[in-house]
Amino acid sequence: TTMANQDAAFGLRPLKTVGQQDDSTGFSSHTIDAGEGSAMYQGSMVIGTTTGYVDISTTSSTKNLGAFWGCFYVDPTTLKPTFKNYYPGSITPPNSKDIEAFVYDSPYQMFEIQSDNTGASAQTDVFECADTSSPTGGSTTNGVSSQELNDSTLSSSIAQLKVIGVSRDPANSDLTAANVNWRVQITEHLLASYTGGAV
């Protein structure tokens, strides 16, 4: 018996790299500007900016860097070194030091993401492209993003994500039900060889 998919968005969850690589997965260290007002959650897609920092993506961002996976800073109140799986926004460490951000930023990174489709999806959606929905959403309780794949934008035209398969998770791989999880790759990626600099 097939069960309905679980409706529990989590942003972009790293799985492995596409194809055969020397390492299967891993994140890089980037920088958030001290005092940056935008919150970034675990699994949020982030962009590279013209000022050299990372920031939260939007539904139309094309210079995407990868999936945010936590940060490190000195807490301005307690003065203690702090690791968090999300950046709450508006943090200015002592002496206005920048914040370290951890990002799964390989252009070859495979992710899993939940579709916002309230109905059935189809095998024909595989290898189509789509933008995201709710890019800035997330939980301050568990720090996890609520970003999803925007099913209504699926087409053959280039967009933020490319669907490369259905989830292997039996709890979220039913194409006949709402909220299927897709395996995706970031198509509009800042570090891809055919893109220019940050905009």
Mean pLDDT: 93
Q: How do the SSEs run, as a string of H and E? A: EEEEEEEEEEEEE
For the largest beta-sheet, the strand count, sense and barrel status come to:
6 strands, antiparallel
Rg, Å, rounded: 17 Å
Q: Spans with pLDDT under 50 lasting ≥5 residues?
A: none
Our measurement of the CA-to-CA distance between the termini, rounded to an integer number of angstroms, reads 49 Å
Would you report the number of β strands?
A: 13
Domains counted in the coordinates: how many? 2
**Percent of sequence in beta strands:** 25-35%
Number of helices: 0
So what's the overall shape?
globular
Category by helix and strand content: mainly beta
Give helix % range: under 10%
Can you give a write-up of this model?
This protein has 199 residues and is mostly beta strands. The protein has 2 domains: 13-19 and 108-186, no CATH class; 28-104, no CATH class. It has strands at residues 13-17, 28-32, 45-48, 54-56, 64-74, 81-84, 99-104, 109-114, 129-130, 132-133, 148-149, 161-166, 181-186. The strands form 3 sheets. Strands 2, 3, 4, 5, 6 and 7 form a 6-stranded antiparallel beta sheet that branches. Strands 1-8-13-12-9 form a 5-stranded antiparallel beta sheet, with no helix packed on it. A hairpin with a 5-residue loop joins strand 3 (45-48) and strand 4. The termini are far apart.
